[in-house]
């Protein structure tokens, strides 16, 4: 058929213009629309070595593939990802926390997940947490330079022992060198399962979160139409169960959408 179309074009001076244009359309390859989203190395939400680059990139693909967009995920350090999105080098930034300062420079989607920082203890320990003053007797392993919660971070009454990573703190907890550590619940579960899924039976996440931050997609100011697509599609996949299915594929054990 392609050869026939080419013959039509070669003999175009004898063919009606409409036939020539139709033939040209047939042999012109379709050009897909591409969106470039910035993300950071933050398993299980996003990461270069995760299945499909993680939950959040797969959520983006699920939503925008319905509109014939091809999605490219670029994994970057946070500062570069944020700067590039503000400047419009990227079409959006995954897993962003809202702030009034950021909202002056970017547009934010509806929230699609809650980022919960929780204390973790050994299962045979009877520690409870309702207010920070209850934690005065305990040694708490923290990650150096990590911002957890203003009241917690600035407290001088709590014994906080910094380490480079959550994993170091987790091993210290297992060996009774600290009483508590803390991390985003999904991040902690992911890291513990990488060591051994059986270790999840050795610890408890205290029910009350120290802090909660809703996760959004942040967009350059020029991309209002992409925000609208995301928001309307998010509502739909929450209703039809697609979001819950995606969460279960990534072993997420929290409700599929945050309490607004």
Relevant terms:
9 strands, 10 helices, globular, nine-stranded mixed sheet
Question: What layout of secondary structure does this protein have?
Answer:
Layout: H1 2-10, H2 17-27, E1 33-39, H3 55-64, E2 69-75, H4 78-87, E3 92-97, H5 100-103, E4 106-108, E5 113-122, E6 139-143, H6 150-154, E7 159-163, H7 166-174, E8 180-184, H8 185-195, E9 203-220, H9 224-240, H10 242-249
Parallel strand pairs: 1-2, 1-3, 6-7, 6-8
Antiparallel strand pairs: 3-9, 4-9, 5-8, 5-9
Written overview of the protein:
Helix content is 36%, strand content 25%. It is of the alpha/beta class and 260 residues long. Strands 1, 2, 3, 4, 5, 6, 7, 8 and 9 form a nine-stranded mixed beta sheet that branches. Helix 1 packs across helix 2. The radius of gyration is 25 Å and the shape is globular. 28% of the residues are buried.
Low-confidence stretches: 20-29, 255-260
Largest sheet: 9 strands, mixed
- Give the helix/strand class: alpha/beta
The helix content, as a percent range, equals: 25-40%
Strands, total number: 9
Radius of gyration from the alpha-carbon trace, in angstroms: 25 Å
Overall shape: globular
Q: Can I get a quick summary?
A:
By secondary structure, the chain is α/β, with parallel strands linked by helices. The protein has helices spanning 2-10, 17-27, 55-64, 78-87, 100-103, 150-154, 166-174, 185-195, 224-240, 242-249, and strands at 33-39, 69-75, 92-97, 106-108, 113-122, 139-143, 159-163, 180-184, 203-220.
